[in-house]
Design goal:
- This protein has a 7-stranded antiparallel sheet, with helices on one face.
- The relative contact order is 0.24.
- It has one domain: START domain (Alpha-D-Glucose-1,6-Bisphosphate, Chain A, domain 4), CATH 3.30.530.20.
- 26% of the residues lie in helices and 49% in strands.
- It has 3 helices and 7 strands.
- The protein is globular and about 45 Å long.
């Protein structure tokens, strides 16, 4: 498994940051690696969906659990990505720390490209967190 971590401090209350990151239908606006989303089901804080990712227009299936104002846990259940992506929110004095932690591997023959893809995911994650920060701090 490959672990990728990125973090950003946002000068805003946790409620404002949560409002942006928990709006999962808007993820492609911030996460450029997500091209398209199709929700399959939603029951309470559990969402199942298909996403088309930028890497070779591959389809992945995700199971997402929302823990309001705390974290979002995304489990990749089908597709070339296996593992998890977790978005954590932590209040620190007058800022909200937003962390993204990936613990993934590429399945099948794609596993040999994990190193190359890791760089793209790290870069895309850092860019997404900065975009979220800019949106919230406007």
């Amino acid at each position: 498994m490959t672990v990728i971590q990125a973090s950003v401090d946002i000068k805003a209350p946790i409620d404002e940051v949560w409002a942006i990151v928990s709006d999962l239908d808007n993820e492609p606006k911030f996460w450029k690696g997500i091209k398209k989303i199709r929700n399959i089901s939603k029951e309470g804080n559990l969402i199942n969906r298909e996403v088309i990712i930028a890497f070779r227009d591959q389809k992945c299936v995700e199971e997402i659990t929302l823990y309001p104002k705390e974290k979002i846990q995304i489990v990749f259940t089908k597709g070339i990505i296996k593992g998890t992506k977790t978005i954590n929110l932590n209040r620190k004095e007058s800022i909200t720390q937003l962390d993204a932690i990936w613990d993934i591997k590429l399945s099948g023959m794609m596993g040999m490209f994990t190193g190359m893809v890791k760089k793209h995911i790290k870069s895309g994650t850092e860019q997404a967190l900065q975009s979220i920060k800019q949106e919230v701090e406007r």
